Amino acid sequence: METKKIFLPESEMPRQWYNIMADMPRPMEPPLHPGTCEPAGPDDLSPIFPMNLIEQEVSTERWIDIPDEVLEKYLIWRPTPLYRASNLEKYLQTPARIYYKNEGVSPAGSHKPNTAIAQAYYNKVAGTKRITTETGAGQWGSALSMCCSFFGLECKVFMVKISYNQKPYRRLMMETWGATCTPSPSTETQAGRSILEKNPDSPGSLGMAISEAVEAAVGDDQTKYSLGSVLNHVMLHQTINGLETQKQMDIAGDYPDVIIGCAGGGSNFAGHCLPYVRDKIHGKDIDIIGVEPSSCPTMTRGPFAYDFGDTVQMTPLMPMHTLGHDFVPAPIHAGGLRYHGMAPILSQLLLDKLIRAENVDQLETFQAGVTFARTEGFISAPECNHAVAMAIREALKAKEEGREKVILFNWSGHGLVDMAAYEAYLTGKLSDQPLPEDEIERALSAIAPLPKPKQYTG
Amino acid sequence: METKKIFLPESEMPRQWYNIMADMPRPMEPPLHPGTCEPAGPDDLSPIFPMNLIEQEVSTERWIDIPDEVLEKYLIWRPTPLYRASNLEKYLQTPARIYYKNEGVSPAGSHKPNTAIAQAYYNKVAGTKRITTETGAGQWGSALSMCCSFFGLECKVFMVKISYNQKPYRRLMMETWGATCTPSPSTETQAGRSILEKNPDSPGSLGMAISEAVEAAVGDDQTKYSLGSVLNHVMLHQTINGLETQKQMDIAGDYPDVIIGCAGGGSNFAGHCLPYVRDKIHGKDIDIIGVEPSSCPTMTRGPFAYDFGDTVQMTPLMPMHTLGHDFVPAPIHAGGLRYHGMAPILSQLLLDKLIRAENVDQLETFQAGVTFARTEGFISAPECNHAVAMAIREALKAKEEGREKVILFNWSGHGLVDMAAYEAYLTGKLSDQPLPEDEIERALSAIAPLPKPKQYTG
Question: What is the pLDDT of residues B350-375, one digit of tens each?
Fold first, then answer.
């Protein structure tokens, strides 16, 4: 019988994370202080992050040891299985060999605990008692809630209001793990109140929720803030995925021609592809594709520029592809991809043509998700369906070309808590969400007054 | 680092199911025809089941080969990992070593696909085009929907109305896999109409839904009925679990003193424990415990007697522990355990004292589930929490006794689609559901007029 899953023994789980900053062809632009527009130093970040994570944020060491306490918790679900999508291949009648890394086996159902465990641990060591964060669809908030419960930390989550209402089950997961969850914008913070004053019916956005979570952390030494994507140390922690995948692809005796991941803030895609980007820097020919929703086309439409990470301009200015910090994407079901910016690491790699970006309409992603469910069995999160859709596109292209291409994608999480989205799709109530051109022009124009990074090519 | 998960390589997955009927100390009593009360032969079952499954139902061969097509689909999630509950052990400060078999990694999130795959396959081979079934909480219905989609069969599910309303996500999983799902009692069948006539607000029960699904299958050669528990061939298919577990416990170098599973119709418990029951028959000292809700105490309160599997008396009479075929349990959240009967195989083993039974109140099960989630990470299905609660009881007993006991339990599935139940618990809205004594007396008295099996000890 053909091998379906490639497992890595626990003893083979990587003991170090990979830091792409050691290998990038051009150095990263620094974040800037939001007040002075001067490069932000560790001290500027210390009110919201513990120093051990700030050190990782700026480190250029290639390999960073994973603490034993983190490795021990990783073993709850890691190493995750690499799958051969043999049933999907047969259905598509493609000569391509399709592999997917199944990050949905974590208790939270996604890749998010890879960094949540690390961040909870480093905060614990640094003396933090309470962590605040934001969440979109709830995958990040639920992951951090679980990991805080493992290390005895309090956890407070601001959840984008539209998702809070659409996805009660993820809120309930957070509460089961002992966290408190508040719909954002809320009246609990100045940021929330000022947003509600302008628009009492605001559906919320990740940018707004970040503002609230940051504000709730500042000014209390024992409370820190945690971000589930975008930042360098988050990408670092997620590389456990790609490092495992490389070992598993070796076991399978294959090497990917194409690597695919969906990208909101960028963490699952980065974690999956960065070890392979290193191979590409060293001469390997790989097509590495980040997939975003056409209604939030950060990489495919947004310029590379300095912009705020949040809506009310509290965070440092980040050098990244951005649609403007107050862009509010259409309420698509892939809540985790509704973010105006993109991780600076991925933005830089995009600029340097080491990765590329594509966008996909909502209906195509759900069509792909249903095909995947009826062949491979697993029901994907709406975010993840963006990767599935692109893998199917590539597999059909390989069929047209008659090529035995090797396609690898990151299956970032299951959609069992997102079934309302499938209901909308199956009953014909779902539509694509065309980008409102006037809104995007307005949002993009708000970026202009800020300083431009040196490598800005726009 | 201590091993957390014991994986079995795909190459080590068992190639045969284990049939306990070859080893039982006393032979099973036969099912009886509901009209004549004479032993029911294969021909009596052929209107609803294909002959290849009927052959398995009556087989006394010890080992039955698993077809290659079934093995291939099993590989989507099997072999499943065996976990050491090290974090729970630490939290309980118990000297016991606790292991759990994680059946929640299947795409449907439970153990149910173990038999659904087999039944879909055997029906496909026998020329069936369409399968009808019933489901309680939806775990069985969703599993069968997925497996029918793999083999290109139509699937029609009657879902207990109260669960249909409480658990829309499981219905949506069924629809995503291409099945149709109807709340039961429905107006689509005579059985449903007659129940609704007496009680238009009936919340439904598994017994009623079985009546509807059987009726919908009879009279059409290309439509067959499928049952997710109770029957001998279902227990047979589920033994893949226990057979894997035995290999994994060998790898761990441990042997269980106690084995625990929750029991509704009995399939996850049987699948997990039957290979160990064989060891016990051969002299091993193991305490094997089936755990049921105190509000549906089939094994702990029901006599061993002949009774119908369904409410409107369409199925053969089965020799089993039963609360009476028209007993309607309180609407506890563990919908999959709300069944009046128990698998004849388990009923016979209980009679022969090879297994024993305990029952647990609803609140204790959810308390156990939250403890488990905050230590081991995984959120259990309400059914599964019955096993978790009993494992915790046993671990605390070991602590009192200062014994290094080895406790093994079956973690039959996750609860990510059952979060409304956790909400009720966390907000203090959940209560125990004391057994209405007058109702159970009434239901039990309805069993009396039927013939008694020879081994009936009541």
Answer: 999 999 999 999 999 999 999 999 99
Torsion from C-alpha of A379, A384, A386, A391, nearest 10 degrees: -80
> Pick from A107, A168, A422: which is nearest to B378 by CB?
A107
Q: Which residues, 6 or more positions from A277, have their beta carbon under 8 angstroms from its beta carbon?
A: A20, A23, A288, A349, A354, A355
Query: And the tokens for A434?
Result: 């065309």
Contact criterion met (CB below 8 Å) for A137 and A167: yes
Strand segments, DSSP code E, in A248-384 are 258-262, 287-293, 304-308, 317-321, 356-360
A3 in contact with B at a CB cutoff of 8 Å?
yes
Both structure tokens of A154: 């309090």
From chain A, the residues in CB contact with B379 under 8 A are: 107, 173, 176
CB contact under 8 A, B169 and A417: yes
Q: What residue segments make up the domains of chain B, in order of their start?
A: 68-109+232-447
Distance CA A430, CA A419 (A): 13
Instruction: Render pLDDT for A128-181 as a digit per residue (tens, 0 to 9).
Output: 999 999 998 899 999 999 999 999 999 999 999 988 988 889 999 999 999 999
Angstrom distance (rounded) from CA B157 to CA B174? 8
CA distance B171 to chain A (A): 9
Classify A291 as helix, strand or coil. strand
Which residues of chain A make contact with B175, given a CB cutoff of 8 A?
422-423, 426
Distance from CA of B38 to the nearest CA of A (A): 42
Q: Please tell me the distance in Å from B263's CA to the nearest CA on chain A.
A: 24
CATH number listed for the domain at residues B68-109+232-447:
3.40.50.1100
pLDDT of residue A252: 97
Nearest-by-Cβ selection for B71 from A1, A108, A422: A1
| A343 three-class SS | coil
Tell me the pLDDT of chain B averaged across its residues: 94
pLDDT per position as a tens digit, A192-207: 999 999 999 998 888 8
| Three-state DSSP string of A116-143 | HHHHHHHHHHCCCCEEEEEECCCHHHHH
